[in-house]
């Protein structure tokens, strides 16, 4: 009777487990009418006190409910198969129990046979007395500290490939260990002689008779539990015995069983959040790579602009500015004062003197000579007075003849000076017409190159276009990074919150808590990344638009003001206008050596022509003066000679008068031309001063531009730092987030895939032998672990146990059938 009671206990303990079990459903069974079939298998196992198998049987019950006829083929063990409802045998076909049943209400068919398969569970029990491992029989009658250690292992484990989302839009696979998921409990009652009972795993309570009841729960499948469970207890014993223990277990679906459904859903959500984390991190990393590439393009453009600015500064400071200074010095220090002195000499001295000479010859000497000739060639009574007049004329002509060589020498000096002036003007015109435009063209080419490098927002390959694209892409990318990071942070927080409420095996609680803390730290890091990305977005937007506006104020959104592009355009226009004005003014003022042209060289040519004519006239005048002097000396020799000399004198005076008129006109023209030369030289000097001042300012501005671009390309504070920072953020930040997201997706994804595989195995392998086609089925295992008390009795009470188990089977069938309704 004692054995029968202990045999019935585990069967009764199966009831709460089976109430939650999900039935396995196959295709419809062959039946007429409305008949529901349920198959319950109860496997009873006896182990010795160390966990070695003694015997195992399986009790099978087919429960029919409804009205009609049903034919079933029920897989069973044929070894020792017995009918527990009577003495008739069973019809067997190919190892299946075959039966046709008429049902009107409820019917049951019960059988028992030997369990001829490998058990899905193993149990090992170890006993330690006072720190020494002993056999169970060695405990009997002893006193001391007893430690009992159980190891229960799910033997259905196997390695199979599972698949899960990798977070990058694809599917990853992994080899994982799956089992037929089983849950169970082990119950043992310690006698009153066991005191100071402790256990880290058991629920401990009294049995109402002075003893201590221990109950151990087992979740024998990963990842919620483990395929192996280890637990035990310790107690101080006297007159020791080994208490027996009862273990019950049954397969369940972790996706449907109420105790594990929420945990499975949490793991699934963790995998989905891991996928979202990876996807968001991949997007962040891609945008960061775009930011890095844009910053590298910006750096390349700034380096080109820096080189161009250095060349511009070198050209302005080393060539254009010194040349402009020399030009200004030459024009203002030499040409303008010399031209002014020439104008003063021609206009103040030579031109008035030539006018007075022409006036004296034409208005005085020539009329007197004509009168003298007339008087000499006309008979008169006043001959002696004519001789006196001839003597006076001879004396005057001698004085004039003495002054004439000085006049001729002065005219030669004037002619030489005018030639030097003309040569200088020609050289000035040639130099300024060649060198100034060449310098201006070189400067213009440099400015055009800089303007082309700057470009506009519609030209993505230029500096401004690259900056604008970089600003748009980087701020958008930084905004996306911030949004994704914040989303990731919220998702991780949700995962951590959900996982925090999930109960795991106590042995793994510490590692599980550490993992949750790491996950929370990862969420906080993602939040910090989101805040940093938001700050980066604001900083990048402000900094890059400031650079754009500084380079070109015409960019949309920039305030009106000075910019590099505007300065270059003004510089190009100002230099071009200045050079054109100066070259045009100087070349126009200088002109050519055409006497008809109203220019400096034209005036000089006229002046030279007048001086040449004056020289020719003076030479002729000198000859005539010699003749006049000789004729005047010979007046006393005869009236005829005087008359002839006077005639020659008149003719010479007429020629001299004509030459003096030409000389006066040429001197006047030379004076006017020299005045224009002086004015043009002053204008050219002023223009060259403006050119020099402008080029000085341009050189200073190009130096500032070069310095600013040097700062922009500085390795620690400029664009290189942005490139390096983006690379570092990729290497140390987003790539790590991607890796963490992949790890999270893989971890939770693999765990949920294992749960799915376990659930599938529960559906296909959960029963010991299987149910008839179309019937609901469930299997429960009742395992008794024998004790040791020295009595040696082993009353199996098999008949009573069978009655109790089948009573349990009826309850199971009813519960399963109700769950199907």
UniProtKB/TrEMBL annotation:
Top-level taxon in the UniProt lineage: Bacteria
Keywords: Membrane, Signal, Transmembrane, Transmembrane helix
Transmembrane segments: 795-816
Signal sequence, renumbered to the chain: 1-26
Record carries keyword Signal: yes
Chloroplast found in the keyword field: no
Name listed for the protein in its UniProt record: X-X-X-Leu-X-X-Gly heptad repeat-containing protein
Taxonomic source organism: Cellulomonas alba
